[in-house]
């Protein structure tokens, strides 16, 4: 793959004032839902103000698999984009191949290390060099609830799974789908992460999903996590297979469903629908997840180049790290800024809570990378975990057998 660097093709302006080409910054990403498209449009406008053109390359698919396939094809053809959206582990994988440029001089000049959490700085670095630029911080273990539905049936946000089941039973009796879920492996893995944290806290999550300890993977606590999944699926409608995540969010916004277990990118859809997070759509950590925080973040990896092309990339990176952009982008996206110095005043109560929670979780060693979000394991292990979870959801497999299958699949994927 390293030989492909010599074939890098990126159209750029020779100067930010008098462009020679109509398009010079080409960005490949999977932000295609309403809220996500609004967020990326903020970056597009900012880059254009700096005098650079913009070529948007959106690839649909909430988990990013299709976008990464497209990226691999572009790189193989010797025509990578200027920048591409990558997960934390995606950054590492491409950096290991020597295919990401060195942004260290820019990061040092702009003081990135002073405004990024340690896990974020580590996630955009490889071999002592900064190789990507972070947009945001996502929290995966949120629960979203339709406030009007909860008020109508006198329901309180469930803090435990037993409370969740009680709320679900009342919603079922009222003819409302309790839980909006999309039957895709990455969505089901979010529920799995929530169940693991509720079964054994951050300690189990660390040992099982980060350290990949076989004993933790087959422990009674892991079996309990699968037991939870088996019961939760009873509160999902039969039409869930293949449903996109944003359609599940729309079900909650319309009151067709009462709850959704989904990351804070759901807030982008809430805002796009002119609803207020924390007021019209309630937010709380997933049942049994209080005090923990599953995170991942979006970053743009930049492909190595030089001259005017490199200047265009620097302009893009500077735009992404600008505090004003971080604020505006994340207000639209639903996430919180990657920069810790952005004031919370303009953010909704859910985001403000996330800003507090993430700092506390880091202090308590309860801030853990999301498997689903590509912040915990490389693609092979991530895929093995998601496959086991997906098979469990679509079968009558016992929880004990699922835990063993999980340990076996991870061992094979390592």
Question: In short, what is this structure?
Answer:
Helices cover 48% and strands 14% of the residues.
List the defining traits of the structure above:
globular; alpha/beta; 414 residues; 48% helix; 5-stranded mixed beta sheet; 4-stranded mixed beta sheet; disordered N terminus
Helices and strands, with pairings:
Elements: E1 25-29, H1 34-49, E2 54-58, H2 65-76, E3 83-86, H3 88-96, H4 104-110, H5 118-123, E4 125-126, E5 129-130, E6 132-134, E7 136-139, E8 142-146, H6 147-152, H7 161-173, E9 177-179, H8 185-210, H9 214-217, H10 220-232, H11 245-254, E10 257-261, H12 266-272, E11 281-285, E12 293-296, E13 299-302, H13 307-321, H14 323-333, E14 336-337, H15 349-363, E15 367-369, H16 379-393, H17 399-413
Task: Describe what you observe in this structure.
The protein is α/β, with parallel strands linked by helices and 414 residues long. It is built from 17 helices and 15 strands. The protein has helices at 34-49, 65-76, 88-96, 104-110, 118-123, 147-152, 161-173, 185-210, 214-217, 220-232, 245-254, 266-272, 307-321, 323-333, 349-363, 379-393, 399-413; strands at residues 25-29, 54-58, 83-86, 125-126, 129-130, 132-134, 136-139, 142-146, 177-179, 257-261, 281-285, 293-296, 299-302, 336-337, 367-369. It has a 5-stranded mixed beta sheet. The protein has a 4-stranded mixed beta sheet with strand order 14-7-12-15, with helices on both faces. Strands 9-10-8-11 form a 4-stranded mixed beta sheet. A hairpin with a 2-residue loop joins strand 4 and strand 5. Helix 1 packs antiparallel against helix 14, helix 8 packs antiparallel against helix 10 and helix 16 (379-393) runs antiparallel to helix 17 (399-413). The longest helix has 26 residues, at 185-210. It is globular, with a radius of gyration of 21 Å. The two termini are 22 Å apart.
């Amino acid at each position: 793959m390293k030989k492909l660097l010599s074939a890098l093709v990126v159209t750029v302006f020779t100067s930010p004032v008098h462009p020679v080409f109509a398009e010079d910054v080409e960005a490949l990403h999977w932000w295609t839902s309403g809220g996500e498209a609004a967020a990326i449009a903020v970056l597009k406008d900012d880059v254009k103000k700096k005098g650079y053109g913009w070529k948007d390359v959106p690839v649909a698919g909430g988990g990013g698999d299709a976008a990464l396939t497209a990226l691999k094809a572009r790189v193989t053809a010797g025509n990578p984009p200027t920048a591409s959206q990558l997960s934390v582990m995606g950054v590492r994988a491409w950096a290991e191949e020597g295919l990401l440029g060195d942004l260290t001089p820019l990061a040092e000049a702009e003081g990135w290390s002073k405004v990024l959490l340690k896990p974020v700085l580590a996630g955009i670095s490889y071999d002592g060099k900064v190789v990507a630029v972070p947009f945001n911080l996502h929290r995966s273990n949120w629960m979203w609830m339709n406030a009007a539905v909860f008020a109508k049936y006198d329901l309180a946000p469930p803090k435990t799974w037993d409370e969740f089941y009680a709320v679900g039973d009342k919603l079922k009796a009222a003819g409302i789908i309790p839980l909006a879920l999309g039957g895709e492996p990455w969505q089901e893995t979010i529920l799995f992460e929530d169940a693991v944290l509720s079964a054994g806290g951050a300690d189990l999550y660390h040992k099982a999903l980060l350290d990949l300890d076989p004993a933790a993977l087959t422990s009674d606590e892991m079996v309990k996590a699968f037991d939870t999944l088996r019961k939760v699926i009873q509160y999902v409608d039969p039409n869930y297979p293949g449903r996109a995540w944003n359609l599940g969010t729309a079900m909650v916004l319309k009151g067709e469903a009462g709850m959704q277990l989904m990351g804070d990118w759901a807030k982008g859809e809430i805002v796009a629908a002119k609803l207020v997070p924390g007021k019209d759509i309630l937010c709380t950590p997933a049942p049994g997840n209080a005090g923990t925080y599953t995170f991942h973040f979006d970053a743009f990896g930049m492909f190595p180049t030089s001259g005017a092309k490199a200047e265009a990339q620097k302009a893009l990176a500077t735009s992404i790290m600008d505090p004003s952009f971080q604020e505006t982008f994340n207000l639209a996206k639903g996430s919180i800024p990657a920069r810790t110095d952005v004031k919370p005043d303009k953010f909704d109560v859910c985001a403000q809570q996330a800003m507090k929670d993430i700092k506390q979780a880091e202090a308590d060693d309860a801030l853990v990378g999301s498997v689903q979000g590509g912040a915990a394991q490389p693609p092979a292990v991530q895929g093995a975990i998601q496959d086991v979870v997906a098979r469990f959801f679509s079968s009558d497999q016992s929880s004990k057998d699922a835990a063993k299958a999980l340990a076996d699949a991870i061992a094979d994927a390592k």
